[in-house]
Amino acid sequence: MTTFLGMPAGGGNLTGEPFPKAAREALGNAQLRRNLAKATSTIRAKRANVVGELPDWAQLRAAGAAIKDEVLADLDEHLVRFEEALTSRGTRVHWARDAEEANRIVCDLVRATGTREVIKVKSMATVEIGVNEALAGIGVHAVETDLAELIVQLGDDRSSHILVPAIHRNRAEIREVFRRGMPGVDPGLTDDPRALAEAARKHLRQKFMTVDVAISGANFAVAETGSLVVVESEGNGRMCLTLPRTLISVVGIEKLVPSWRDLEVFLQLLPRSSTGERMNPYTSVWTGPTEGQTSHVVLVDNGRTATLADPDGRAALRCIRCSACLNSCPVYERTGGHAYGSTYPGPIGAVLSPQLTGVDRNPTLPFASSLCGVCYDVCPVAIDIPSMLVHLRERVVSAKRTTPESTAMRALAWAMSDARRWRRLLGLGRFGRVASRHVPLPGWSTARDLPEPPKETFRDWWGSR
Amino acid sequence: MSARDEVLARVRRAKGPREVAPVPREYRAAGTRGPGDLELFAERLRDYHALVRVVAADEVASAVAGALRDRRAHHVVTAPGVPPGWTAGWVAGDATGREAQGPTGPVGPAGPTGPTAEGPELSDPAGRITSRVPLGGDAREALPAGRDQAGAHPPIGDVREVRRVGGGDAWAVLREVVEAADAVVTACHVAVAETGTIVLDHDAADQGPRLLTLVPDYHLVVVRADQVVAGVPDAVAALAGVLTQTWISGPSATSDIELERVEGVHGPRTLEVVITR
Q1: What positions does the domain Lactate utilization protein B C-terminal occupy (chain A) (predicted)?
Q2: What is the ipTM score, two decimals?
């Protein structure tokens, strides 16, 4: 067992109800399951298609994993280099230990501009820290400009997918959300996706042209040059990055890549894994303030150093938020993202969230998996999620001290370590046949079928030949 | 301790001994795949529903003119460094045979015929944009009878320039002009055959600031054959040191509603590419 150095855990939107409880509710929603099954099967097929086109996918994947490991191995040096590069260009760099501090920084910067409204580029880090709620607290309305994030926001809902936050909503539901939540929308709005997108375009264009402060995240941050990269599809990112005079970018410290050249790997891995496209419609790169803007970067820890401190868990920080693991996961497909209770759902969420918050605040997530291994196969940076889940289960169990399960397992280990003891225990199997029908094992048998011990063990049969 | 020092101290405590293997770069690296395949590039662009015209190098002007005419563009802006020859075709190639007349000079807030815009930034030559806006009523009346009424061609444009660097008034003026435009013409820095991607360098005069290609609904890009590279690593190599970039792969699109692709959410709804052989 590794020693943990007691690095402070992260806060924000990373915990929810225990997974088994939340999942049970989700499983009762047939509409949700239909929406999810349709969406994830579509995107899985697209991904497989474009990944299959590249003869060097395996090599790109190996390079992607290695580059991220290289960043993590010297993260302090890369961060300092990144800060220097940005500062020399005129961007102000801020550091935040946790979600609360990051929000305070963003709120102070926004307050200084005097605006009552900000526009936002879709960003997981800002959802994680809950910046919208923090801004609301100082009377500033944050307008989500990604279509799916807008649907979630107008519906007073929560995101359920890293890439397609409104994946749990179908077109009819979205029309209702727009009719109720979008000011001035045509009451005759149909549920045709084109009409819905057009309604959003009109609604948001007015925001783009008038709101003067934007908040973004970044998909990648290049330590060598100070460049930030936003990968998107709709063009709302370009609007937010270009039009307002003040740009605040919230960046998790694990988003760094050492050099500009490294993007040659990630700009191939990300779009193909994420939306199943050869390339996403728009990628914006900027290096310091551009075209007269004032630019700020907020570097956020919020549990990332705690994750880094566990050598067996730190690979979760390689994640580039593509969501291929969500789309492939049989558990996610049935429960949806809300059941995970965290900004990061699905298999990656099951390993990332407990590490960011500490396993004590997310003890059920490492068990939210059947360990089938598909998530590892599709991960573009080769995060071995199944092994990490097992590792985290061990941490959860050891953190919980003694439970009936751990006592039983310890007793079993003691019996199995000696042939004579084991033989005697197997003899008790006959007693177990009777007992298993009458003795409930709560906590174990709720999620598992208890096999009935056989009438005759193999040893008995072999001995009687 | 400041947040900065504390986060860095945490990283140093957490990272442990360095035991990382060098990055294996066994994928198809830059320069290993020869030049970009123009056929493939055109095919990939069409996959994204971009419009594509492949022409000889000396046919750029007529291709641009044809595209703008088919688009029925009225207000066209171009990046300042775009060779005048490209858009000259739109005017000179018009069936009326007339050259653009109207004033040539900076556009001010007063509109197409207004005086030079105020603000010191406007005189900075680094950020010039040429804007073509239609002539006023007089010019229209001068058209040969029948042409205009038939609606076969957009009005003849005249050439204007707007310059901007920095914020303030110049930015507002630029926005006003660009918001009024219904088409924009630029060059590009590099293009990727395998992914059908075009990359703009916003510090290059013939590509212009980001706003220019963001707001108008139609973006026409001219790509030279020698700018088309095979794969993403080739493009990344060509873009080293370029500070502000936009990578464009087809028109703006969303799949947020039941993963059904809808084009033209916020960015230009139509992308047209003229490739010169």
Answers
A1: 398-464
A2: 0.88
**Could you tell me the pTM of the whole model?**
0.85
Q: Do B259 and A308 touch (CB under 8 A)?
A: no
Q: Are A219 and A229 in contact (CB under 8 A)?
A: yes
B30-77 per-position pLDDT tens digit: 999 999 999 999 999 999 999 999 999 999 999 999 999 899 888 888
The neighbouring-strand residues paired with B271 are B219
Ramachandran sector of residue B119 (left: φ over 0; alpha: ψ -120 to 50; beta: rest): left
Helical spans, DSSP H, in A74-166:
75-89, 99-113, 124-129, 131-137, 147-154
CB contact under 8 A, A234 and B247: no
- Domain ranges, residue A63: 42-305
Tens-digit pLDDT profile for residues A352-362: 999 999 999 99
DSSP notation for A189-212: --S-HHHHHHHHHHHHHHHHHH--
Per the DSSP assignment, residues forming a β-bridge with B229 are B35, B192
Number of domains in chain A: 3
In angstroms, the CA A96 to CA A90 distance is 19
Enumerate domains of chain B plus CATH numbers: 36-92+159-276 (3.40.50.10420)
Tell me: the pLDDT tens digits for A152-206? 999 999 888 988 888 888 899 999 999 999 988 888 999 999 999 999 999 998 8
Q: How many CA atoms lie within 13 A of B57 on its CB side?
A: 5
Residue numbers in B near A166 (CB within 8 A): 256-257
